[in-house]
Structures are given as C-alpha cells and as structure tokens.
Amino acid sequence: MSEHPTPAAPPASGRPDAEPPAIEVRDLSKRFGTALAVDGLSLSVAPGETVALLGGNGAGKTTTISMLLGLLLPSAGSVRILGCDMARHPHRVLHRINFSSPYVDLPRRLTVAQNLRFFARLYGVPDADDRLARLGRELDLESLWKKRTGQLSAGQKTRVSVAKALINRPEVLLLDEPTASLDPDTADWLRGYLERYQAERRVAILLASHNMAEVERLCDRVVMMKAGRLVDEATPAELLRKYGRTNLEEVFLDIARDRRAEPAPGGDRPRGEDPRHRESGEAAP
Predict the structure, then answer these.
(1) Lower CB density within 10 Å: C or N end of the chain?
(2) Does residue 46 form part of some domain?
(3) What span, in angstroms and rounded, lies between the C-alpha atoms of 26 and 243?
(4) In the sheet where 221-226 sits, what is the strand order?
(5) CB 168, CB 123: distance < 8 Å
(6) Phi then psi for 206, rounded to 5 degrees?
(7) In the structure, what pLDDT confidence band is assigned to residue 260 with cuts at 50, 70 and 90?
(8) What pLDDT is stored for residue 100 in this prediction?
(9) Domain assignment of residue 3, yes or no
(10) Does residue 171 carry a pLDDT above 50?
(11) In terms of Cα–Cα distance, which of 210, 203, 205 is closest to 221?
(12) Total domain count for the chain?
C-alpha cells in the first residue's frame, strides 16, 4: 500500500469548541411499534473530532446511524448535520457526508470501477477520474478495478467500501466497524490512513466499533449506549479512571453487565455483580 507524508498535527484539544458541531443530536428517540430502539439520545461531534458510538447488540447504534443519514425518521428529537435538519432537508447536506460498513454490500455484479464511478456521479464529484485514481493508489485498489465486487474477499470489499465513503471528500464520515474484516496488518494500516485523512481534512467522524483498542487509538470521546439510552460519555482516559480499569474492553464489560463505576474499597474493581458468581451465589470480589 502507498506511503503518505505525515500531515500537520491537529489542534491539541481535539475539540475546536468555538465552531458549531458537525453532528448535533438532541433528545433523539425512535420507536418501532411498542419497542423503543433509541430513547432520548443527545450527542455532538465537532469538526476534526472522532467520537465512538459503543454498545452491545441491540443498543441502538445502527438505528441511530440510520437516523443520522436520514434513512429513518425520528419518533422524537432532532438530528442536525452541518447545521441542516436531517428530518426536513436531508438533500441539502447528503453530498457532504458519507458512510461505510463492511456489512452493506455494493452491487455485486458491477466491477469495482463501475461501482465507484456510479457513486462519484451520484455525489456529483467534479474530478471523478482523478479522484478514483488517487483512491486506487492510496487504498491499493488498482489491481481490483475490473473485478466484480461479488468476487472480492472480505478485506478487499472493506477497502472498496472505504473508497466509496471517501469518494466525495466528506466533511462528516460515519464508520461502522471499518476494520472488522481486515487482517491485523491491513487494519493497522487503515487506522493510520484514517488518522492522516482526518488531520488533512478535519472531517468529523462517528465510529461504531467493537474493537476497543481501535477506539482507544482513534477516538477523542466515547459515547456508551445500552438499551437505546446514553449511559456514559467521556474521553477514553476518563472512562478508564472512572471505572478503575486498564483498557476500554473492561469498561465495556462493566457497563454491559451493569457494574457500577465507583471503585470498591481496597481495590480497582468497580462495585457490582460479577456474572462469574451468579450461578454459585458467591459475592463479587
């Protein structure tokens, strides 16, 4: 894969608070029948900031992202992207945002080149050929141009999906498990690529991931969801201190298993039930 020059470092704070948020969610809820998938969620992402949206299966992450993209209408609350109300005027801003997920297939019978050219036209990219050529070099896609997307490996599909997500030089980027199908070496390379891209373009990124090491590396803040609600929000370092843990995976498990954040006397483990002791009835240490 191609090497890139090291860009200038982003602002030390990571959060240019003087600027309006690129993503602003207020009291967002989504109901499907009697089921409340998202319940009063509020969050924001500033330009140049990466925020992780974390939670177990069924936490409401995918529903939230669908409302951010305008694919679902909220039952209550609001979503503003780059100052635009997504429920009322999504088409004013859709050309300035993009999305990537290894779980969303591009048309399988089209070649990689055909797929990316289609999305370049859809987003109105003025220099489409030059843009595709650059992404091809940077994401190591040049040998795949003529292959049908349905014939690609999982890792190759992931790189094509990232190229699609960057085709319009988005100001807001929504990433769902961007490295889930990649081997460790390629995943590490892609994380570095995203870091460089963000530093160069000051893109706002909302990242949904189950890779906690990835979240610790890439994210300025973490929003933890459970059963559709925000249950905690802080920087990765603040969460580690709050829960008395050494890594975010342990924090994730504490929240998923309803352990309290306050440290227990005489130790670092937060108070709360430890699932390993449920069957025996033994008290948690």
Answers:
(1) C
(2) yes
(3) 27
(4) 97-100, 172-176, 204-208, 50-54, 221-226, 229-234
(5) yes
(6) -110, 120
(7) low
(8) 92
(9) no
(10) yes
(11) 205
(12) 1
> What pTM value is reported for the model?
0.82
CATH value at residue 217: 3.40.50.300
Reference 136, options 159, 103, 110; nearest CA is 159
Nearest CA-CA partner of 155 in 196, 189, 194 = 189
Phi and psi based region of residue 57 (left: phi greater than 0; alpha: psi -120 to 50; beta: remaining): beta
225: domain range? 23-234
Q: Would 222 be classed as within a structural domain?
A: yes
Assign residue 224 a region: left if phi > 0, alpha if psi is -120 to 50, beta otherwise?
beta
Domain assignment present for residue 12? The answer is no
Give 110-169 pLDDT, tens digit per residue: 999 999 999 999 999 999 999 999 999 999 999 999 999 999 998 899 999 999 999 999
pLDDT in tens, 182-212: 889 989 999 999 999 998 999 999 999 889 9
